[in-house]
Amino acid sequence: MHKQVSGLDATPTIGRAPETHTRVIAVSSGKGGVGKTNVVASWAVALGRMGRRVLVLDADLGLGNLDVLLGLVPCRTIEHALSGVCTLKEICLQGPAGIQVLPASSGVPHLTSLTDSQQVVIQEQLEELATGMDVLLIDTGAGISPNVTFFASSAHEIVIVVTPEPTSLTDAYALIKVLTQRYRERRFKVLVNLAKGPREAAEVFRKLDAAVDRFLHAIVEPIGYVPQDDYVPLAVMRQKAVADLFPDAPASQAFARLARQVLQWPLPTLPKSSVQLLWQKMIRLA
């Protein structure tokens, strides 16, 4: 397979258009430390700035930190909703650019693997929240835990975040392998983060693509890269998404282009697997 990784700069601007479907996108990674949550936060903000209605689910349920990254202080989290103290709607917070955020708990080991009944609670309560939203972004945990594979296989699109580090590629391949062999996933989108430039991003994708093409019955598609940017750690220290605090930064511009690109992806019409038959109760696709 011969694919090119662009910097997302060739995507034309798309004006606001009514959408009757909710795009469910899971953002995952094989290992931690690749900037996945930063990607989700700024991607959501970029979509919000375009007038899109965005709901973000922090699905790293036992070690959530999306709220910290956005400077939000939740009174309750998904842990409380799962225990019946409140509903998901009651814990929903408004973030920058009008995005809605469902915060997870931190340091709660019993939530690292949801029970069947807990999965049903999340599915059913997300239905009300997701209705009318343009995009539901799911920030999964890293690795191949049951929670990660559950949320990833339940989404319409799976975006794998990788970096130029060899361990990132190895673990990304492992995640794709599990989702392919156990959950029959066949298509993945790949975003290269922290790349020095388009050549490095293209080489990172080429290595992952070659391994997947050779050993797995799956297709990986490049959706661009986010450059190394000194403004990103500055934003993290100030508990803001870089796209919110420094909208003209190189990384922020990449997220803006990514937001425009995602709106060109085909709208969901039918569940892609038996897992999504459950999620059809959550998101009305008709």
User: Uncertain spans, ≥5 residues at pLDDT below 50?
Assistant: 1-19, 280-286
Q: How helical, in percent, are the residues?
A: 40-55%
Q: Give the termini separation.
A: 35 Å
Q: Characterize the biggest β-sheet.
A: 8 strands, mixed
Known CATH architecture: 3-Layer(aba) Sandwich
Give the name of the CATH superfamily. Answer: P-loop containing nucleotide triphosphate hydrolases
Please count the beta strands (DSSP E, at least 2 residues each): 8
Q: What class, by secondary structure content?
A: alpha/beta
Structural domain tally: 1
Q: What is the subunit organization of this protein? A: single chain
From the 3D structure, determine the CATH topology: Rossmann fold
- Which CATH top level class fits? Alpha Beta
Radius of gyration (Å): 17 Å
* Strand line-up in the sheet with most strands: 3-4-2-5-1-6-7-8
Shape label: globular
SSE ordering = EHEHHHEEHEHEHEHEHHHH
> Counting H and I runs of at least 4 residues, what is the number of helices?
12
Estimate the mean pLDDT confidence. Answer: 87
Fraction of residues in β-strands? 15-25%
Description:
It is a single chain. With 286 residues, the protein is α/β, with parallel strands linked by helices. The protein has a single domain (23-266), classed as P-loop containing nucleotide triphosphate hydrolases (Rossmann fold, 3-Layer(aba) Sandwich). It is built from twelve helices and eight strands. An eight-stranded mixed sheet has the order 3-4-2-5-1-6-7-8, sandwiched between helices. Helix 1 crosses helix 11 (250-262) and helix 7 packs parallel to helix 8 (198-215). Residues 1-19 and 280-286 have low confidence and may be disordered.
